Amino acid sequence: MVDANNNLYREFLDVTDDLIDAPEFKRLSECRHHYGVSRMQHCINVAYYSFVVCRRLGFDYRAAARAGLLHDLFYYDWNSETMSFRQHAYSHSKDALKNAESLIELTELERDIIKNHMWLCGKIRPRYRETYIVSVADKICALWEACRGVRIKAADKVGKSLTGSRAA
Ligand SMILES: [Fe+2]
Ligand SMILES: [Fe+2]
Q: Which residues are CB-neighbours of 57 under 8 A, at least 6 positions away?
């Protein structure tokens, strides 16, 4: 999804590489977030696009990139049978904030981004414009990743049915 060779991506890495290299962040590669997409990849996608938009608009792109990376820094595997979506929306933001605070010292803006990235759910109200950007990037990336998952699942199904019909 992100082109690793462009200059903007290198600039993004300049402000986030300490976090990307942290074992606490790398652990997210083991957590499935959407079908075929790890939580680590989802966080990188959200952080990168938030960085690009905030940089273009003259907003605090460093905070957007860094808090974007940490916005889903939690390790449990959510499913709708064990917790409602609303409960999950509040609980994972709280967990992510706690985990991020134990990893680095956060600014007020970064705290707001992580705590309120589930804007539009319940009474969550961001205090900063960068939080809205990260929140929208989160929703777009989630949708894109979920659609990609549906396409992969559909292709798997077609592949299996073709293999099955040939074997029969
Ligand atoms: Fe989230
Ligand atoms: Fe997210």
A: 133
Pairwise CA distance, residues 165 & 145, whole Å:
30
Pick the ligand that lies closest to the CA of residue 137: 2
Instruction: Give domain 7-167's CATH architecture.
Output: Orthogonal Bundle (1.10)
pLDDT of residue 38: 93
CA distance 135 to 128: 11
Buried b (16+ CB within 10 A) or exposed e, 126-138: bebebbbbbbbbb
Spacing, Cα 51 to ligand 2 middle (Å):
15
Strands 32-34, 37-38: pairing is antiparallel
Cα(150) to ligand 1 centroid in Å equals 20
pLDDT at 35: 74
Amino acid at 42: H
Q: How far apart are CA 164 and CA 68, in angstroms?
A: 43
Sequence ranges of the domains in the chain: 7-167
Query: Ligand 2 centroid vs 5 CA: distance in angstroms?
Result: 24
pLDDT at 167 over 60: no
Which ligand has the nearest atom to the CA of 88? 1
In angstroms, the first-to-last Cα distance of the chain is 38
